[in-house]
Amino acid sequence: MSELRTFLTFVAGIRRRKLTFARDGYLRGDLNARLHLAVGREDPYALYDRVRAAGPLVRTRSGDWVTADHQVCDTVLRHRAFGVRPSKLTVDDALADQFEVSFLGMDPPDHTRLRRLVQPFLGPAQVTGYAPLIERATDRLLDEAGPGNTIDLMAAVAGPLPMAVMMEMFGVPADRRDAFSRSAAVVGSAIDGIHSLTHAARLRDASLELERLFTDLFALRSREPADDLISHLVVQPPGRIEPAELLPLVNLLLVAGFETTVNLIGNAVLALMVHPGCWDALCADPRGEADAVIDETLRYDPPVQRAGRLALEDVEVAGRHVGAGEYIFLLLGGANRDPVAFPNPARFDPGRPRTTAHLAFASGIHYCVGQPLARLEATTVLRRLAERLPGMNLARPVRRRTSGMVRGPRELWIRRHT
Ligand code: HEM
Predict the structure, then answer these.
(1) CB 374 near ligand 1, within 6 Å
(2) Spacing, Cα 361 to ligand 1 middle (Å)
(3) Quick check: CB of 370 below 6 Å from ligand 1?
(4) Does the beta carbon of 246 sit less than 6 angstroms from any atom of ligand 1?
(5) Which of 68, 111, 151, 234 can bridge 106 by disulfide, Cβ–Cβ 3.0-4.6 Å?
(6) How far apart are CA 111 and CA 118, in angstroms?
(7) pLDDT one-digit tens code per residue, 57-68
(8) Atom 35 (ligand 1) nearest CA
């Protein structure tokens, strides 16, 4: 009964937030709220420009702050006066009530302790070891994409690849992978927001199922450790990780690493298909060009569009006084289009000089720990597509996801050959 009450309170919270966004966005002209509405999801970049034009740090109708300024975003992300506890308003907050987000939702010293445990598994050297697996999996998925000339790249490759890599990294036994992938994909979709009562119910069922699967896997790897991330976590001496921290940690890796990578692949292919000159340049030199295309995609159309930070004490930012307990929405996608940091920012140009770092992976202590893996997966897919299907092109207009947080194509239909 109390579980039902929690669930209904949770769903009511989502509804309330939706209404608040609609009221503030449509009736009160609040640009930050508009980003959560259809208009903002379709083209957030126009709204980011308006936020930036209003000032480097702008008050919202809800009493929070918002910024699309590259320097301000970077400063806040690196500033010790800010922490990661969520605001009272965001949909992300509703998720945080439902799912613990492990060290992404923690400040030091707990953040440092848990991040250090997974970092060795996701560092560049370790990740390079996954290169052959990623290449084999990409080729297998392309081979199995079906006989027709037209395929949905999201369903055929961009979705299954990150999941297959994650299963390998976690050390999920072969006979459990289908069950894991099914539940993990639903749980991973939580990052995209909760769209309906049905979605919320599916999410709850999938997270219970995933919890059961992970609990079995923790027990298996405690008895029979192998060379994988779960074994590494379950054999830690006392004090490094509490048993209750295990499940949130692996869930974080799933949620943070799945939809993000899926949409990086989708956004990169989409950008290339609508900029045929860039696609031709990639096909002429797939190995040499893929890194630059991925980096430019991360700047131009990043999968994670926003982050947020809570002021832990009174602090001065961009000439404004931010009080302790006040929240700043950091529009990462807007920071990446700040003309001060990136000349001609609306132009997709993989050849642009890399003098300023984009914020697609944030910055500061929460800088994405999975970025080497995400880059490797995405560059491998682009390279193999360019090598195998240089004649491919867009087969249908693209439908975007409906989330303001994660940006990417819902489906991406391509013709393999013209
Ligand atoms: C294109 C793909 C990805 C993008 C755009 C992305 C983006 C981000 C961003 C923006 C943050 C910071 C969030 C914040 O500070 O509020 C973050 C953190 C994080 N990401 Fe990623 N991510 C990607 C892939 C991955 C992958 C593949 C993994 C794991 C396998 C991963 C695991 C994490 C974790 C664990 C954190 C929390 C780091 C911390 O709190 O110290 N991410 N990511």
Answers:
(1) yes
(2) 6
(3) yes
(4) no
(5) 111
(6) 11
(7) 999 988 999 999
(8) 253
**Which are the contacts of 318, defined by CB distance < 8 A and separation ≥ 6?**
55, 56, 57, 67, 69, 72, 75
Strands 150-152 and 399-400: unpaired
Q: Supply the residue whose CA is at minimum distance from atom 17 of ligand 1.
A: 368
Whether the CB of 303 sits within 6 Å of ligand 1:
yes
Comparing CA positions, the residue from 128, 127, 105, 124 lying closest to residue 115 is: 105
Output the CA 148–ligand 1 centroid distance in Å.
Answer: 35
**44 CA → ligand 1 middle, Å:** 21
Ligand 1 centroid, distance to 369 Cα (angstroms) = 6
Digit-by-digit pLDDT tens for the chain (418 residues) are 455 555 566 666 666 777 777 788 777 778 788 887 777 777 899 999 999 999 999 999 889 999 999 999 999 999 999 998 755 544 444 444 455 679 998 999 999 999 999 999 999 999 999 999 999 999 999 999 988 899 999 999 999 999 999 999 999 999 999 999 999 888 887 776 676 778 788 888 998 999 999 999 999 999 999 999 999 999 998 889 999 999 999 999 988 899 999 999 999 999 999 999 999 999 999 999 999 999 999 999 999 999 999 999 999 999 999 999 999 999 999 999 999 999 999 999 999 999 999 999 999 999 999 999 999 999 999 999 999 999 999 999 998 887 778 899 999 999 998 7
Residue of minimum CA distance from atom 18 in ligand 1: 368
Distance (Å, whole) CA 79 – CA 144: 47
Instruction: Give yes or no for residue 335 CB within 6 A of ligand 1.
Output: no
- Helical axes 177-188 vs 243-257, angle rounded to 10°: 80
What is the phi-psi region of residue 356: left when phi exceeds 0, alpha when psi lies from -120 to 50, beta otherwise? beta
Fold of the domain built from segment(s) 2-415: Cytochrome p450 (1.10.630)
- What are the residue ranges of helices labelled H in 224-370? 229-234, 243-257, 259-274, 276-284, 286-300, 332-335
End-to-end CA distance of the chain: 58
3-class DSSP state for residue 214? helix
105 three-class SS? helix
Residue with the smallest CA separation from ligand 1 atom 16 is 307
Q: How many angstroms does the Cα of residue 23 sit away from the middle of ligand 1? A: 31
